[in-house]
Structures are given as structure tokens and as C-alpha cells.
Amino acid sequence: MQPSFIKELQNIVGEQYTLTDRESLAVYGYDSTPEIESLPGAVLLPGTAGEVVQIMRLCHGAGVTVTPRGSGTNLSGGSLSGGGVVVQTSRLNRLLEIDEENLTATMEPGLITSALHREVESRGLFYPPDPGSMNISTMGGNVAENSGGLRGLKYGVTADYVMGLEAVLADGQLLRSGGKVVKDVAGYSLNPLLVSSEGTLGFFTGITVKLIPKPQGKITMLAHFPVLQDAALAVSAIIAAKVIPATLEFLDKVTIKCVEDYAHVGLPLDVDAVLLIEVDGHPVVIAEEAAAVAEICKKHRCSFFQTAKDADEALKLAAARRTALSALARLKPTTILEDATVPRSCIAAMLKVIQDSARKHNVTIGTFGHAGDGNLHPTCLTDERDTDEIKRAHAAFEEIFDAAISMGGTITGEHGVGLAKKKYLPKLVGESGIRVMRGIKNAFDPKGILNPGKIF
Amino acid sequence: MDYVKLINCMRCGMCLPACPTYKETFLETASPRGRVALVRKVQEGELDQSEQLLEYLSLCLDCQACASACPCGVNAGELVAEFTCERKESRGLGFMEDLILRKLVPHPDRLETSMVPMRIYQKTGLQNLVRKLGILKMFPKQLERMEGLLPDLPDKPLRQEIQVITPAVGQERGTVGFFLGCVMSLIFSDASRATIKLLSSLGYKVITPKSQVCCGAPNMLGGDMAGLKEAAQTNIDIFASYDVDFIVTDCGGCGAELKKYGHHLDGYKSAEIFSGKVRDISQVLALHADQLRAKLKPLPLKVTYHDPCHIAHCQGIRKEPRDLLKLVPALEYRELEAADACCGSAGTYNIERPEMSDLILKRKLDTIQATGAKILVTSNPGCLLQLKKGLADHLPDVKIMHLTEILDLSMNGQS
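Above: the input entities. Below: the C-alpha cells describing the complete assembly.
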């Protein structure tokens, strides 16, 4: 990057917040995605939305690309720069308003998800999306990736809560879409386009989300299944019985062992799978729902059914589940995680495909995930230095994606396409899908300044 | 340096919210994940060991909160410490390092003598005069900071006063060896005296060998692995000559280091045996909770507890100190938010990186204030020094005590 250009960047955000030393560039060259790195030309940490506008104007004029970055926990390479400028949102982290009359919260993009949870819950309100990385992920990143989480089954994903967005477009112009209104049909709905745009359409500077009343109570349960398929069938049976738990999570044997090794929460080591189930709402209703869930699990041959004795134990179980992906890395240095998603009725069939592919390609795959959403996380445990095994792992995933598509599912439920799943997207959306997406990108960012090379 | 330990980091970012320096800066270079990446890139030849790189690494407190937070078992703090130690070692000890790590620290008598001028400085009133006149402003900032941290010194270090054998009170249930930490003995001798008293009143014969030396932790920091191994060997031999059930320490830092002797002297059986016997005082007292409870008298005080990194993160001890405090009748225990977050002391960090240390200390003081507690309990001399100064400056109503001091107070029935 030209020294004169760097000087201009420094004039905008200040020297202290313009990082260009080799060491800084090196550590902003990765996110949580395995196997890919990309060195940025500079890293900026703006402190105001006005600075973001100036950065975009300058970069647009100079033809330099800009990649927004929150905390760098992206799992599809979406926060990697391709050589341009990385703009980290950490200093734009204020919670601007909680509007209790309209039940909304408005914030800057760098606000940490769990910090929002804490604030709204202290007022008896609730913001449900809770991605596994919520203790460090940013709201800007959650919106850009349309993050899911453990409570998706009952409460949906980030997109279901975004009401208003303020975004800086590639040329520095401000775009506002939506707001605090519950109904709004003026023109095209831009919110859903910007949500899950993976940083390619605009740089968020303001986010308004919907809040709901905090559920009065919850019951957390854990069911042990000696046979994997029984757990999967129980998932479908619970939903078919018209019980919608907030959380319906699945962990297979490999995952159970790794999580237990780290978290010591008393998970069983001698069963093929466990389901972590949480029902929330009015105490009378959840008591009935919990009884129904217990009944169904027993009918599906669960060997042990446990209800968390207090809030502390419930919290520990959920927190342990959040560590699943990272805990799997205890066994092997490299973990390749996917999030193929199928209609929830197909969960048992999908589990079988995963098991068969792992066996066929001779790789170890641990599977966990949001079973109730049909969103599993088959995770291949491998070693980046073993090129042959890496090749086999990718072959196995290719099959898993094909199977997901053939079941009416998708290649990614919540991690985004980014760089990692680019080559699978045409298979899913076809030529027309790619053409329309390109057209949209062109309408927002004809020069291709924002987060280059992602999605398609 | 074990390369596999470096590539085990899968960069999930779970460590970021636990890291004190990341919380202050939001910079990837100041995060555990970033530090592991920097060390890895040096090993892979992608980055040089530049001054800038070492400067980034030196911001790490080695509090190991990242290790507690890491689901895949990476200990970023330890990896950085090992890398820094190896690098310093390859450069060789400088004059000052040699003087301190080889000529001073391994010799308790010399270390004690070196403190005599400080004691005179305090006792003669010279300290008050110097502080009033602001003379220290004329010296390097580090000296002023060091002077400010120093609390009132005891008349004599505990090592010089204590009997080698303190007999058990009543029926003897066993024998423990007591490991005197340098700072505990030199500065917090009252706390260690309370430790020994608690042990003997619970029926332990306490042996305090006078020839024991520093645990070696400063050597590791200074890049002197050979010095650390020498210290370990000396202490192992000394304690092996007594038949003890446990080797007890009331210093979190020493405890963490002593428990690693088996790792440092890999394959050496007696090091493994030694480390296997090491217990933090809270672990031993917790074994006899019922008996202890019967001896404790009411202390109507609001108390909170700060987890020293070397006890919570390095030794995994969190429950015992809290359980012990809750034994005291009438004591109102209030949990501290982020109790196991570092206080910014971290060995000599508070002198070397004063600005970052002060930011971290401020967070800790804010949480202490929020509890409304009037007594802050902790059990590591570094934390005691740092927080004593911090409380005196900002929350003068709150007093700090070592865990064994408050238990001793309750046993004596004074408030």
C-alpha cells in the first residue's frame, strides 16, 4: 500500500488506529476459518460512523477494497481481506438505545452480542439469537452473516429481529432501511438483502433490532441415547408432537467426549448421542412441554433422562454445548466444520449420510448441532499437514453437500458462503440465482469495493 | 518449543473475552489467539523476532485466563512465556539478570539482607520525608512505582523467626512441609505465620526447612531455565529429607511453579513426587472443614474474594477458598464479578507496563466497589501488593487480607 495513501487513512482515523506493521497485518490475515489466510494492506479502527464514511469515500476513489471485520470469528473466510483495507468495528461498540415503548434496541455494529443480551435481560426483555460465539461475536457480524444460534428453533435467526439498518455504501453514501415500524412496504425490502450480505453490500454503522419479553421460566433437559438414529428420530417426533423447544441440540459420541474433557459437566461417555433440550415460557406450559419431551425421548429408547436441577446447572450445560466446535479441536490440530442444513424431517437421513461419507473416505467426523433446525455441524478432525487426509475430508463434505441439496436443504445454514463455500453455491442456486445476486451486488457496489471475492 | 501446541489453536476466538489486554485494546496483537499466531509465524519463518513482535508479546500478563477459556486445551500464556524464556536464554543473561537471578534470588540470606535498607528507610521516617518532598519524581518512573507498592515491612522475615518444627496442637494427624515464598516471608510474614498456626491447630506438624530457596519463577521470567532447574533440584532434595504428607504453600505463584517441577525436570522421579505433594493452603484446610468450622468465631464482616491467576487459572482452585470463607460464622460473603480476572500485578508487570496494569487494576477496583464488601480476601503476594496499593489510593475503606489471615482472625475471635 502506498505511503501517501496510508497517510490519508491516518488523517481519517488517527495514526494510533491505523495498523500497518507486519505483525498486525499477519494477525488480521485470519479469522476462525481453517486453511485460508489473506494478508491485508492495512487495518483501521474507526471511532465514528463519520470516519467510516470518509474511509469508504477515500477507498472508493482510490479503488482500494474494504473488508469489514468484527471480532474475526467468521467460519467461512468472510472477514479476510484479499489485500485491501480491513476495518475493525471494535471501537464502534455503543448500545445507543433500548426503547421499551417500541421494544427495540439500537446499537453500533461492534457491540458484543452477549453484552446486548445482558443489558436487555436486566430490563426483562429478550434478544433471542445466540450464536455459539456470542461472548465475543459482534452484532454487525451477526447481521452480516445472519447468525443463528441455539435458540433458533423457537425464536428464529438474526434476520427475524433486524428492523432497521444504517449502512455506508461503497461510495460513502449513507443508506437507511427500515426503522422502528412494525409494518413497512415502501419499496423493495432492503433489510433482508443487507442481512446475510456478508459485508459485500454495505458497511453497517447502525442496527435496530426487535426485542421480545423475556420468557418467565425455562426447563433444561438432557437425554442420553445409546443409538444415534433414535436420537434423530426423537427430534422429529418432538416437533411432530407440536412441541417447539427453544433449544433442541444434538451431540454425537466424539463431540460428547471432547466437550466433557473440557467442561466437566457430567455428560455420559458411553452413549452414541445426547439431546440437549430447553423449553421456555410460562411455567405451567413448560411443565407440560417438558413432560411431553420426556415421554417422547423414553419412547425412542433414551437410556437416561435428566432435568437440570437449577439455573446454574442449566447454564453450565448450555455453555458446554457452545464449546463443542472448539472442544473437538482437542483431538486433532485442524477442524473443518460445515453447516449443511436440511428440512428437519430429514435429520435422521442426513446423519446417516454423514456417517457413511466419513467411513467411505476414512476420516473422523464429529457431529453436533441444531438438530431441531435441521442444521447439523459435521466437523472433520484432521491435520492440515496431512494433505491426503485433507483431500479426503473435502471429498466427504462434497458428498454431504450434494446430499443436503438433494434433500431440499442448503450448503450453509448460518456460517455464510464467504470464500469457503463459494464453489458449492452455483450447485444450489443455479445460473439464475448467481445472475440475480451479481445484479444486486452491481446495484450496490459497481466497482466491487466492499468485501471482494466473497459469495460468488 | 512444541510446534504441535501452536497449531492446536484453531483461532475460534473463545479466548478473546477472557484476555485482560484484549478487553482493554480490542487489538488482535494483544489477544491470546494473536500471540499464538505471532509465535507460530516466527517458527514457520514468516515473521522475524523483531523488536515490535517482542513488544507485542510482552503485553501478555501470563495470567492464563486464556487457558481456562480455551476448549481445545491451548495455553497461550504459557506458550508466550516459553517462547520469551527461550529467546532470552539464547541471548544469555545480562549483568543485572545474572546479579539478580544468580547472585541474589537463590540465596535467601542475601535476599533478606538486601531488604534491610528498605526497612531502615521506613522505620527512620525517611520514607515519609521522601514521599513528602517528592524526591522520587527525580528518578526513573519505575523506581517511584516500586517504592509506592512497598507496604510496611515486618521487623524480621519469617524465615529468620520461625522454628524448623512447629508441633501439632493436640492429636497429630500428619506432617506437612511448609514452603516459604520469598515475598510472603519478606513482606507478608503475618499471613504465613497464620498459615502455620492454622495447620498446627488442625493437627499437622509443620516443618519449615530454613535452607529452602526461591521456587524459581523469577528465573523463568528472566530466561534462566538453568537457574530454575537448579532451584527445583535444591528444593526437591531439601524436602525429600523430611517425611511429609504434603508440601504446603500460601503463595499462589510458588504453588503454581512447584507443581510444575515434574514438568520442568521431565523424567526425574523425585521431581514428580515432589510436585505431587504440593498443595495450596486452601486445599489442605478444605479437607478439614468441619473441624475448622468448630474453631471459628463470628466475624460480622462483608467479604469478597479475588481469585489470583496463579491459583484459579494455573492450579484450577476456585471452590476451596470460597468454601473456607463461608465457614466463618456471621461473615457475609459477596461474590466478585469477574473474580478470576487478573488484577494487573503479574510479577513485575505492574512496574514494567504501568499503563496497562493501571487499566486492568481499575476494572478490578470497580468490581470490588460494586460488591460493597469491606474486606477483600486473596491469597497471592503479587495480588496483595497490587491491590493493597490500589485500595489505599482509591477505596480506602476496603481492607485487604490473605485468606489465612482472616481465618486466623476468626479463630482468635477478634474483629
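Note for the figure: The CA atoms of residues 30 and 438 of chain A lie 26 Å apart.
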